[in-house]
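Forwarding the complex inputs:
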Amino acid sequence: MDSGPGWELWRTFGAVMRAGSLSGAARMLGLTQPTAGRHIAELEAALGAGALFTRSARGLQPTETALALASESEAMAAAAAALVRTASAPADAMTGVVRISVSEVIGAEVLPPILAALRAQHPGLIIELLLTNASSDLLRRDADLAIRMTEPRQQALLIKSVGRIRLGFYAHRDYLSRAGSIGSAADLERHAIIGFDQDAASIRSIEAAWPDLPCFALRTDNQLAQLALIRAGCGIGVMQDPIAHRDPALVSVLPEDFQARMSVWIAMHEDLRSTRRMRLVFDALVSGMTAHIKAGSERQR
Amino acid sequence: MDSGPGWELWRTFGAVMRAGSLSGAARMLGLTQPTAGRHIAELEAALGAGALFTRSARGLQPTETALALASESEAMAAAAAALVRTASAPADAMTGVVRISVSEVIGAEVLPPILAALRAQHPGLIIELLLTNASSDLLRRDADLAIRMTEPRQQALLIKSVGRIRLGFYAHRDYLSRAGSIGSAADLERHAIIGFDQDAASIRSIEAAWPDLPCFALRTDNQLAQLALIRAGCGIGVMQDPIAHRDPALVSVLPEDFQARMSVWIAMHEDLRSTRRMRLVFDALVSGMTAHIKAGSERQR
DNA sequence: GAGCAGCTATACAGAATCGTATGGACAGCG
DNA sequence: CGCTGTCCATACGATTCTGTATAGCTGCTC
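Prediction (whole assembly, four chains):
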């Protein structure tokens, strides 16, 4: 039985794909360039599917065959990383690594206090935050846990719905006193709206929710920057109610005309159920996010 | 940057998990027992999460920590196997390995002629058939393509619906002439019904479709055995119309009272789109299954 | 209880792998 | 144009890893 080429070869293959050169890959992995070169040569010989790369003096360029392997190679790397995480502590311990995938806003604005409380109780926990708006793959184990705004419809995932976050338009009161307050939606024409730049999906969802919105005056795809712009009094933008309500200087704009809700789920791979720290963090995220959503329904005093 | 333990160590870890012993794992991988033992020891040292196995004179028993790693380890092995498959030929060639996951009935009764025609056109294709009724994981790449009877609701999958297969009750004419023909559903009480033994999901779906069915007289979870029993004249059972119609000796029983439809999808991982042979087999499955379903709507002559 | 079969652990020699050192090629820059 | 930085390919010595051989343990069978 031929069990294929050595797995170490696949590791350097992945590194070469990402680095674009043997030397770069060797630096990544703590090897030397000749070793990386030997690995690739051995891999090509073992596969017998022709060359994987075309060598040049400024690096290795992947052939079509190598490109077809790219995503699968990353999946293997993700699996290896997940193994290391899961094995970072005994399964029944409250120590070790947990990797959480969340959106930028949640990760920067909502999670820190939740995680702080969690780590105060369990100092051995190590949290890795993967801040990305593109939903990374839980099944592929790019992360152990995830907070999702779209319902994960996949088997093999442990899912808990925690409610819906209210969204609204907000502006700093200094901005409003400067640019003039707003009585009706028609007044928005005179105002600076903060929105997205190129993120087509977000733009479309905003347009779907509020079709008669004037076009964005300030554009960025970075949602944290949007929040900062609002707080700095640059204009009017979309904000989660619970986040806005923390700052008394932020004023809700046309709360009747512009509101939306965003459902929130916490998801975890089923296999992690028996790993105690994963379950612990899962429960902490559920209760923390529930509290966060609840805070949004109360106005600041 | 510490990039974790060597991937080869994970490979022997997986083998030890499956074999239950160092010696068995070594035989699987073409290594020797001392090497396997060294690998595990090195892995335990590298992870620092305590022992992965408790050694005994009759093998290695996984600890809870090791059990938590089992499924992820298999995912890594699946990724490695998928890499070997994808790299078994140049991406633009019509040769190489394609692994298909299908149900036992489809795999044994429907696919063979489709695959025969395909291989006649492209002799370089190597087909691996994974016959399992439990839907294996496409995202985890246990297989490259799959024929599914439930709609795959996952991103990153290329899905094509090919229609619905009609199901009905059938019996061999010899059986009916021996046991008496059937005029109404009440007559079924006197007859031998072929059905499932322990497969709770299948039993429930049958009961949902035909609530007033007498209990099964002949039981097996192996659907191929069910077909064989029907063909041998043992009794009445559920059969796909297109399969039944091939054999003039099979007679439809109460076609008005007992009928159902089973939707069929062909699914493939998105990443394989650019691999030409995968696309080829995908298209062949689509057209082949479409033809199969169409054949079910015509009675045999 | 002796014998057998299966397993793990250890010692040591051989083989495969790796790193160092070097040469050659190419692109960017002053 | 020459210099520099980066890259790949090759040769050779050192290290690491692997396999063989052996001892010890356990459970089963006769």
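The CA atoms of residues 48 and 167 of chain A lie 56 Å apart.
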